[in-house]
Each structure stands twice: as structure tokens, then as C-alpha cells.
């Protein structure tokens, strides 16, 4: 095996989005495409000679091939060691856990998260730093800048490393350690949650369905929930990760996890339902005939955190992304702790977690997590709920309705308009950006606008400024309309419209969400002229 220096030319568009570089598999399969990006990561980091990296992914199509490419390139670039998940498998939170536990220089995670997998679907790659979290913008900007000037990369002439056998080996002078993909993560979960109580909850006959959507949460959920917690075999369904996710769209929301929703709406529904996404960082929590919104889930976890051993000492603070509902703000207020509002993107929580300012974080996009790792964590969120169910003896529905009775309900929904033409979508946002400056104090749909702006964030830890993070219109009764373009889509542009209305009166909490939000939905459509500008009269996905 010899080190080779291969001449290359930049590819256009290797700009990492909200969560790394995501493109169609066939784009990644072009000669030099992945290599250019990986070398750009290494170069942007100032080289990786002598460093230790973690490597793994969600097992989707192209995962195994990419692992081999990256192993060769890491060896050729002089890395001391790569710790790789067996079979190339590491969920995103597990990768974060391993980076932190073994204090490595960083890690490369192969995933396009909740986007479908397969030859004609998506693949993705991102770099996480030594805190286990997604690289901050200054690093991703440097990676992108490097992709525009790259002229060569280093690799080995030919090598295939056996990533299926556990243990240590060598690749062209670099150490390679193939680790059990689940072990370190499962150990961390046992430190946080009351496993004996949850085991007793299952032993008492309580039932659950965890839908892994044929993605990477399968091995984690099976080993922890069916194995360590003693839930009956079959509790985890679609638990074997497949390269095409068995055709599932591995996004745990009511629109895509339809099998689970049907199970939870049936007369024979188990006590608890949950699902996770392609790389196991997202979660959906479901009760009987009830989908818990991610925003409510965050608020409920925060309100009850003291029941969980890992959080028994209380929370330093909480954080949510701007479009996430303000339900958790009310809990923070009651607990007398800080609540931070960040732009969309888990990476913005990193500094708050590192600085000990926030303990729990969450996003409306089915992401919840804590300072135990630096990624959102689907299986962790499910275990947190299991711990609450076991500790209180209450059902999901009871926990939710009691929460609303105490804090009020934030009716919440997100309307997505997917695969729009990029230009009209940008124009729609640009027009709104102009319009909002004049809205404060005016009436819209019978409500007074208290604040209207394009959200900007000044990081309280490092002072960095992030502008243009979404148009928000906040009414004086706490209702909100938020518009932004997705940073994770791979086809055209996706307009997201987030709608929220606060209702204090428990007698009104039983309303159907879309009906409760009908007035705001109308205002949102008219204000942005969604139909006129996009030609769409209904959203493609409503969650
Ligand atoms: C990923 C990110 C999240 C983000 C979500 C939606 O899951 O990790 O932080 O909230 O995508 O992002 P988008 O830009 O598509 O709304
Ligand atoms: Zn994900």
C-alpha cells in the first residue's frame, strides 16, 4: 500500500447546510467528489497528522463504500487512529458519545438523517469537533472555502479494511479500532436513567412499540429496550438497518411514521409509541390517539426532569430553536431558570451546553437532547419518557393533559411547502423581510402584532452573530407565525411556516390543532402570498 496524491478540481456546491453536506448518492459517487470534501475537511482543520478520529454512519446506501474511502484518506493524511463503528454503523448521538468518551480530535458522521436512502436517494457527511458536536460555522465555512480551491487529495492506492470484525488493526501505519456500535452509548444511558424502574414498568405488563423505520436506531433500541430493559421481543419494529431503509421515509413524524400512528390509534394500542429517524437523533413520542408535539415533549421533559436520576439535581437552563413553540419558556419561568432561543440547527446549542448554561435543548423538528452528548438524541428522549412513565405510573396522555392544565397549551403546527422553485421561494422571503419592518403595532386577523423581525442571534458564549434566521411575527397574545427556508432539503427550496397559539383555558385544550390554528393559518398564507408566489394552495406536509 502506498500513499498517492491525486490531482483534482473543485466541484461546485460543496457547501455544508444546516447539518453537513447532503446530496444524492449519484452525486457522491462521481469520481473525486467525496474525496474532495473529505480532504477539504482535513485541510480546513489544519491537517490531521497524529490525530484520532471517530467514523461511522447510519448504514444507508454508500455508507460502507464511503467508510473505506475515508479510512484510506485518513491513513494517507497521517492520522494516528480511526475508531470506526462495526460495519460502519454509528448513530449520530452514539458518534457524539464516542468522540467525547475517548476524547478524540473529532469525528466524521455519514448520514443524510431523515432523508430517504438508496441508490437514487440521499447521502450525507459532516464533521463533528472534539466536544462531540457539529462543527461550528467558522469551520464549515473554512471547509467550503477549501472545496472551491482544492487541487489534490491524498489516499492509498488500494485497500479494503475489514470493518465487520471487532478489534484493533493497522492500515498503512494508521491504527484502526472497530468498536461495538452500541456498547458505549448503552453505558451512558444506564448512567442517566432509572433502568430498574423502567424494567419493573415493563415487567408489570406495560407495552410499547418503537418503530426504527429500518434505520440505525434499530440496534440501539433493540439492545437497550428489549435487552437491558427486558421489553418483550417485537417491541422494536423495523429494527434492522437497511441500505434503503426498506423504502421507509425515515422521518419520525405523523406524515411518515404511518405504521406506528395506525398502531397507536387502534383499540389494541400499546401504552407507549415512539419512532426515530435515519441516524437516530430525532424522536417522536406517541400516546394512545395522541402525538406529542416535539415542543410539548421538551416542555414536559423539563418540567419533570427531577424524576430522572441523571437530572435529579435540576436543570441549569433550557434552550429551544426560535421556531419551536414557547411551551418550554413557561416551564423555565416556573422553575426560575434561563431559557435560550437559538436559530434552527443543533449546532447552536453546543456553546450553551459546553458553557453549562443549558441542560436540556429541543427543536420542533423532532429533536430533543441534553448535555450528555452534543447531538440531539432519539433513543435518549424515548428513555426519558419511559423513565417518566415508570416514575409517575401515569400514561402519556395523562402527563400531557396535566401539563397543559398547569401551564396552558401552545397549539402548534408546521406547514411545509416542499420542492419549490428556488427563485420564487427566495423572493417570497425577501418580500416578507421588507414587509415585517412595518408590521409592529398593526392588526392582522384581529390580533395586534407585538414584534415582527428577521430573527438574529448573538451567541452569549462566543459573541458570534447569525442573521437572517427566519421571519417571525409575534402577536400580543403570544401567538406566532414564523417563516423560513429549510437548510436541509436536497430538492429545490422548502418553505416552512410555523404556527403557534397559546390557550390558557383547559376547557379549550381538546380542540383539533388545525382548527385551533385556522385563523393564523389564513393570516400566514395571505401575508406571504404563498399561493400567488408559489402556485401552491396547500402544504405538502403538515406536522
Ligand atoms: C436537522 C438539524 C436540526 C434542524 C432540522 C430542520 O435535523 O439537525 O437542527 O432543526 O434539520 O432543519 P431545516 O433547516 O430543514 O428546517
Ligand atoms: Zn437525524
Concise description?
The protein has 543 residues and is of the alpha/beta class. It contains 18 helices and 27 strands. It folds into three domains: 3-181, Alpha-D-Glucose-1,6-Bisphosphate, subunit A, domain 3 (Alpha-D-Glucose-1,6-Bisphosphate, Chain A, domain 3); 185-407, 3-Layer(aba) Sandwich (Alpha-D-Glucose-1,6-Bisphosphate, Chain A, domain 3), CATH 3.40.120.10; 409-542, Alpha-D-phosphohexomutase, C-terminal domain (TATA-Binding Protein).
Write a structural description.
With 543 residues, the protein is α/β, with parallel strands linked by helices. The chain has 3 domains: 179 residues, 3-Layer(aba) Sandwich (Alpha-D-Glucose-1,6-Bisphosphate, Chain A, domain 3), CATH 3.40.120.10; 223 residues, Alpha-D-Glucose-1,6-Bisphosphate, Chain A, domain 3 (3-Layer(aba) Sandwich); 134 residues, TATA-Binding Protein (2-Layer Sandwich), CATH 3.30.310. Helix content is 33%, strand content 26%. The protein has a 7-stranded mixed sheet, with helices on both faces. Strand 17 and strand 18 form a beta hairpin. Helix 2 packs across helix 3, helix 2 crosses helix 5 and helix 7 packs across helix 13. It is globular. It starts with a strand and ends with a strand. The mean pLDDT is 96. The protein binds 6-O-phosphono-alpha-D-glucopyranose (G6P) and zinc ion. 6-O-phosphono-alpha-D-glucopyranose binds next to loops. Zinc ion binds next to loops.
Amino acid at each position: 500500500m502506498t500513499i498517492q496524491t491525486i490531482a483534482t478540481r473543485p466541484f461546485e456546491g460543496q457547501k455544508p447546510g444546516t447539518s453537513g453536506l447532503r446530496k444524492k448518492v449519484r452525486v457522491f459517487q462521481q469520481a473525486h467528489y467525496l474525496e474532495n470534501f473529505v480532504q477539504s475537511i482535513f485541510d480546513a482543520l489544519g491537517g490531521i497528522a497524529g490525530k484520532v478520529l471517530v467514523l461511522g454512519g447510519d448504514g444507508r446506501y454508500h455508507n460502507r463504500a464511503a467508510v473505506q474511502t475515508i479510512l484510506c484518506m485518513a491513513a494517507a493524511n497521517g492520522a494516528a487512529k480511526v475508531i470506526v463503528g462495526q460495519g460502519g454503523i454509528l448513530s449520530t448521538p452514539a458518534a457524539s458519545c464516542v468522540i467525547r468518551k475517548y476524547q478524540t480530535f473529532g469525528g466524521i458522521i455519514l448520514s443524510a438523517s431523515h432523508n430517504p436512502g438508496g441508490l437514487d436517494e440521499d447521502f450525507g457527511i459532516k464533521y463533528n469537533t472534539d466536544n462531540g458536536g457539529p462543527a461550528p460555522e467558522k469551520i464549515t465555512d473554512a471547509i467550503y472555502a477549501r472545496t472551491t480551491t482544492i487541487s489534490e487529495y491524498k489516499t492509498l492506492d488500494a485497500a479494503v479494511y475489514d470493518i465487520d470484525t471487532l478489534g484493533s488493526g493497522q492500515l498503512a501505519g494508521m491504527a484502526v479500532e472497530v468498536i461495538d456500535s452500541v456498547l458505549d452509548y448503552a453505558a451512558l444511558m444506564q448512567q442517566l436513567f432509572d433502568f430498574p424502574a423502567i424494567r419493573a414498568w415493563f415487567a408489570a405488563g406495560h407495552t410499547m412499540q418503537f418503530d426504527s423505520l429500518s434505520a440505525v436506531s434499530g440496534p440501539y433500541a433493540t439492545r437497550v429496550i428489549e435487552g437491558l430493559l427486558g421489553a418483550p421481543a417485537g417491541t422494536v419494529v423495523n429494527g434492522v438497518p437497511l441500505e434503503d431503509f426498506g423504502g421507509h421515509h425515515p422521518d419520525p413524524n405523523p406524515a411518515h411514521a404511518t405504521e406506528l400512528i395506525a398502531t397507536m390509534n387502534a383499540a389494541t394500542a400499546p401504552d407507549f409509541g415512539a419512532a426515530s429517524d435515519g441516524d437516530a437523533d430525532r424522536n417522536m413520542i406517541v400516546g394512545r390517539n395522541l402525538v406529542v408535539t416535539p415542543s410539548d415533549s421538551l416542555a414536559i421533559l423539563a418540567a419533570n426532569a427531577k424524576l430522572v436520576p441523571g437530572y435529579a439535581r435540576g436543570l441549569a437552563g433550557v434552550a429551544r430553536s426560535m421556531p419551536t413553540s414557547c411551551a418550554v419558556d413557561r416551564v423555565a419561568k416556573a422553575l426560575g431558570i434561563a431559557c435560550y432561543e437559538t436559530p434552527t440547527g443543533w449546532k447552536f446549542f453546543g456553546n450553551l451546553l459546553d458553557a453549562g448554561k443549558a441542560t436540556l435543548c429541543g427543536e420542533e423538528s423532532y429533536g430533543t437532547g441534553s448535555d450528555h452528548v452534543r447531538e440531539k438524541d432519539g433513543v435518549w428522549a424515548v428513555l426519558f419518557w419511559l423513565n417518566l412513565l415508570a416514575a409517575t405510573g401515569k400514561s402519556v396522555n395523562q402527563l400531557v393533559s396535566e401539563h397543559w392544565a398547569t401551564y396552558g397549551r401552545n397549539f402548534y403546527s408546521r406547514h411545509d411547502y416542499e420542492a419549490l422553485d428556488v427563485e420564487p421561494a427566495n423572493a417570497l422571503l425577501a418580500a416578507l423581510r421588507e414587509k415585517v419592518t412595518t408590521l409592529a403595532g398593526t392588526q392582522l386577523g384581529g390580533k395586534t402584532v407585538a414584534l415582527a423581525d428577521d430573527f438574529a442571534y448573538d451567541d452569549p458564549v462566543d459573541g458570534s452573530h447569525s442573521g437572517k434566521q427566519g421571519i417571525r411575527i409575534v402577536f400580543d397574545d403570544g401567538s406566532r407565525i414564523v417563516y423560513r427556508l429549510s437548510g436541509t432539503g436536497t430538492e429545490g427550496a422548502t418553505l416552512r411556516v410555523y404556527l403557534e397559539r397559546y390557550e390558557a383555558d383547559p376547557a379549550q385544550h381538546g380542540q383539533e390543532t388545525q382548527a385551533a390554528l385556522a385563523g393564523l393559518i389564513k393570516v400566514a398564507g395571505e401575508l406571504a402570498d404563498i399561493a400567488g408566489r408559489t402556485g401552491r394552495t396547500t402544504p405538502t406536509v403538515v406536522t
